[in-house]
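Students often ask why inverse folding is considered easier than folding. One informal answer: many sequences map to the same fold, so there is more than one right answer. In these notes we will look at a single instance of the problem. The structure comes first.
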């Protein structure tokens, strides 16, 4: 690398034990002590140099933490090299396996720089089905956090790919789409909610992420999204129903209140009823609590919850008056 300072980077790295068989913990301690001797600008140059030459996974992880603290643009190319394993062709497979944690941390540090120039590298790892799933998850998350809408179409392809075996990767892609907030993701996300799956299927968690993504994107007022959320109130999964209630509560759809009210009245699960009652209370006033307390149609445990909320409401009013 081009060293624009008068630092002898090789000597500094040698003194830290980078090129010897020194134990990783000792090398890391020496790296940490560098902040006592050098300026921020010099430290970035030193860390970048070490990122090129370090071989021990534990040492590389510490260097990634160091450059992530400064987030200098000059570090980005070295982080990408690590993510893509460009300097590890001589390593055996066992050692490369240890690099998975390194590369996951690297993807997070890359995302923190918010630089769209790295999107293609992240997409390369994401789309490589031979890649370790945790690295692919980290890249999907990084794409969402960077916020480049060029990543929308590839992320949609991941969740639509019937040959993609990793449901966890699909979940990460869905979450990333929620962060990106692009309208092109609405139809694929709604299609997930419209898919019929049993309660024990891992697909249930994908539905939960899809609802969360649609909520973040602010598309819950969309008529098709509203219908999908309404239908999700009949899903076998309790958590999917709870998530749908929260999404409807946050929407401005004119039929959201009455839809949640029917859920409060008819859902067989007490936890779902509680969430529906709280949502209705947040959307209106204490009248829904009074109705639950005074109506014979609601179970005692729900009445107890309503009384508890009402007491908290009254106590808050008293404190405000004081």
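Output (designed amino acids):
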């Amino acid at each position: 690398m081009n060293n624009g300072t008068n630092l002898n980077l090789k000597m500094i790295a040698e003194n830290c034990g980078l090129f010897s068989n020194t134990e990783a913990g000792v090398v890391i301690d020496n790296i940490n002590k560098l902040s006592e001797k050098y300026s921020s600008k010099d430290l970035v140059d030193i860390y970048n140099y070490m990122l090129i030459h370090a071989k021990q996974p534990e040492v590389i992880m510490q260097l990634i933490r160091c450059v992530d603290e400064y987030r200098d643009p000059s570090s980005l190319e070295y982080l990408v090299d690590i993510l893509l394993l460009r300097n590890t062709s001589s390593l055996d497979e066992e050692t490369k396996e240890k690099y998975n944690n390194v590369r996951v941390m690297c993807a997070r540090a890359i995302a923190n720089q918010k630089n769209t120039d790295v999107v293609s590298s992240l997409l390369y790892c994401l789309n490589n089905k031979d890649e370790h799933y945790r690295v692919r998850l980290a890249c999907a998350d990084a794409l969402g956090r960077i916020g480049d809408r060029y990543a929308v179409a590839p992320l949609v392809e991941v969740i639509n790919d019937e040959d993609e075996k990793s449901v966890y990767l699909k979940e990460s892609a869905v979450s990333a789409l929620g962060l990106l907030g692009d309208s092109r993701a609405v139809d694929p996300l709604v299609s997930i909610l419209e898919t019929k799956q049993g309660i024990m299927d891992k697909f249930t968690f994908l539905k939960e992420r899809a609802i969360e993504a649609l909520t973040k994107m602010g598309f819950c007022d969309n008529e098709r999204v509203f219908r999908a959320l309404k239908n999700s109130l009949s899903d076998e999964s309790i958590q999917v129903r709870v998530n749908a209630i929260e999404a409807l509560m946050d929407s401005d759809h004119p039929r959201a209140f009455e839809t949640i009210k029917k859920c409060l009245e008819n859902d067989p699960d007490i936890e779902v009823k509680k969430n529906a009652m709280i949502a209705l209370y947040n959307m209106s006033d204490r009248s829904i609590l009074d109705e639950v307390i005074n109506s014979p149609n609601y179970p005692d445990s729900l009445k107890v919850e309503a009384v508890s909320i009402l007491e908290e409401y009254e106590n808050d009013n008293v404190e405000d008056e004081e």
